[in-house]
Amino acid sequence: MSIQPATTVDFFLGGLEAFMRRSGQGTHWGVTVLRLEGRPDAQILTQGWKQIHAMHPMLGARLKRQWRGWRWVWETAGPIAAPPICWHAAQPLPPDAAVIQERLQGRSSTGELSTPLWMEVFPWGADGGHVILLSWRHALLDGTGINLLLEKLAAGGCASGPPLLTAPPSETPAQLYKRARPLMNRLQAMTTAGCLSAWMKGMPIGGRPEYRLIELSHEESGKAVARLRALCGDFMQMPFYAAVAARALRLLHERREWSSPEIHLHLPMQLRGRSRELIFGNHMGAMPLFLDAGELSTLEQTVAHLLEKYREAMKEGMPQASEALTKLAAHFPLSTFIPMVRWTNMGQICSLFHSHTGAFLPGRTEFAGAAVQNVFTIPSVCAPPGLGIFVSDYAGQITVTLAWRGDGVSQAEIEAMAQRIRTDLTGIAEQ
Amino acid sequence: MMQALSDGMPEVPISPAAVIELLTAEHILEPQEPLTPDTDLFSMGLDSMAMMQLLLLIEERFRLTINPVEMTRERFATAIALAGFLEEKRRQAA
User: Fold this and answer.
1) Rg (CA), chain A
2) Are residues A272 and B52, on separate chains, in Cβ contact within 8 Å?
3) What are the residue boundaries of the structural domains of chain B, listed by start?
4) Could you give the CA distance from residue B51 to residue B28 in angstroms, rounded to a whole number?
């Protein structure tokens, strides 16, 4: 047995999954879709797949409480065998939404997925097209981890395992409380204001994971990137996409005639010091931002407002406060974490989940010998918040995933949000 | 020579070495090997949060306000490029 320190994000995602299980929403899965223009080389793929499993015992890890220090750790029992890559028979069409929805519920065509990482290859059509589906447990790896994993697989494997991690210095509850105080004050103010997500008390919890893809053409993607640079420069992709997501949620609130004076975003942020060798174990922390609903009238106004709030939050030490508050919560049982968050936030977790984790497979045009057409991720979300908006980028091609559950969001609402997102990204209003 | 600003505080000189000191002392970047004036900063992991942190530190230390739109890859590519951009900003502000 060996022990790896867990991060506060691992605890957050562990708590989220515990909440999902208890509320009948299953386990927390994500699916990454690789569309290839030819047949991937089975030998390269299998070799990389086996090496990654041999080098990363984290694939068999269990998040548990360590008695000494009362810390959350990953316990691993040594290398695990790679599950077989599932090659399906050729079909006239690529895998449809029903297949992806099944994976988002942790199931394959033959039963429950028994490992946290599962790969399938779907040959389709007369032109040699192939789709690879990677299904992954979000409690163990996030979008950044998937990005790193794809790079390793594309390179044909990995020659070494992850570096040894050291546990962060421990702090007393009093020290943590002092650091967490700015966020606690902000959360209390937010509770008074009444932030809403896509879910409200009285609406059903659970239902099948649903999703809608918004695939921008190369021309539209070019317009989106130009708009991003004009508003946010070359580095602030996440604030730009978060502004687009916040405006989509605001539209949903307006359509429902809901009053939410603020939108509570968790802006994902890379944890400092995380190694690029560290595929498994989550990389992203959360920066809490509270946007005034009245400041979201145009994308330009929203971006300016979000950047100002971002600057304020950095000055107030919100990233450190968020980490400290999660560390404080980690003293309690995993199953109580999200209920405590919801109690603080009047039934909400946050206003929506969203992310953009950088470009997939940077600089690569091939994957296991086959030309890549597009790569994007479809995570499942729980209710609350009931809506996730995720942005994937491959070679400058932008794909947006809207994810929700059951009947929590209507088709008309999805259409309206999809149109708003496309218009915000490209600057072109649909006719 | 160090000049005094209107609030009486001395103006901190801008140089590639001062930029490297800012990036490493404040843990914006945590490189495994020492940064040099022409190290590619982008490949060291400058993400949006690191950039916002850097922007605030530049404001605090060099007394310069930078709009995110001004944050281009060329200007933030290396410590030399960034120092050059900041010196130009200071000249314009004078």
Assistant:
1) 21
2) no
3) 16-93
4) 8
| Domain A2-154 part of CATH 3.40.47.10 | no
CATH no. of A173-354+382-426: 3.30.559.30
Question: For domain B16-93, which architecture applies?
Answer: Orthogonal Bundle (1.10)
Given this chain, do its domains A2-154 and A173-354+382-426 carry the same CATH topology? yes
Residue A20 contacts B where some CB pair is shorter than 8 Å:
no
pLDDT tens sequence across A40-54: 999 999 999 999 999
pLDDT above 90 (res A169): no
Question: Quick check: B17 pLDDT over 90?
Answer: yes
What residue of B is the nearest CA neighbor of A236? B48
Could you state, in order of their start, the residue ranges of all structural domains in chain A?
Answer: 2-154, 173-354+382-426
Backbone torsions φ then ψ of A198, nearest 5 degrees: -85, 5
- Best mutation target among A227, A236, A309 (most B Cβ atoms within 10 Å) is A236
Residue-level length of chain A: 431
What are B57-64's contacts with CB under 8 Å, separation 24+?
B57/B22, B57/B26, B57/B28, B58/B22, B58/B86, B61/B12, B61/B22, B62/B12, B62/B14, B62/B86, B62/B90, B63/B5, B63/B9, B63/B11, B63/B12, B64/B89, B64/B90, B64/B93
**pLDDT, tens only, B22-80:** 988 877 887 778 889 999 887 776 777 788 888 889 998 999 999 889 999 899 999 99
- A272 or A83, higher pLDDT: A83
Round to whole Å and give the CA distance between A426 and B79: 34
Residue with tokens 């090659």: A87
| Res. A431: pLDDT tops 70 | no
Which one of B30, B56, B68 has the shortest CB-CB distance to A236?
B68
Q: What are phi and psi of A277, to 5 degrees?
A: -80, -10
Provide, as residue numbers in chain A, all residues whose Cβ is less than 8 Å from the Cβ of B47: 235, 238, 269-270, 358
ipTM above 0.90, yes or no: no
Closest residue on chain A to B71 (Cα)? A233
Q: CB distance from A310 to chain B under 8 Å?
A: yes
> Would the CB atoms of A269 and B48 count as touching at under 8 Å?
yes
| Long-range contacts at A16-20 (CB < 8 A, ≥ 24 apart) | A16/A138, A16/A338, A16/A349, A16/A382, A17/A138, A17/A139, A18/A334, A18/A335, A18/A337, A18/A338, A19/A335, A19/A337, A19/A338, A19/A339, A19/A382, A20/A382
**pTM to 2 decimal places:** 0.92
For residue A2, the Cα-to-chain-centroid distance in whole angstroms is 28
Amino acid at A208: R
Tokens 């943590």 sit on residue: A176
Distance from CA of A246 to the nearest CA of B (A): 18
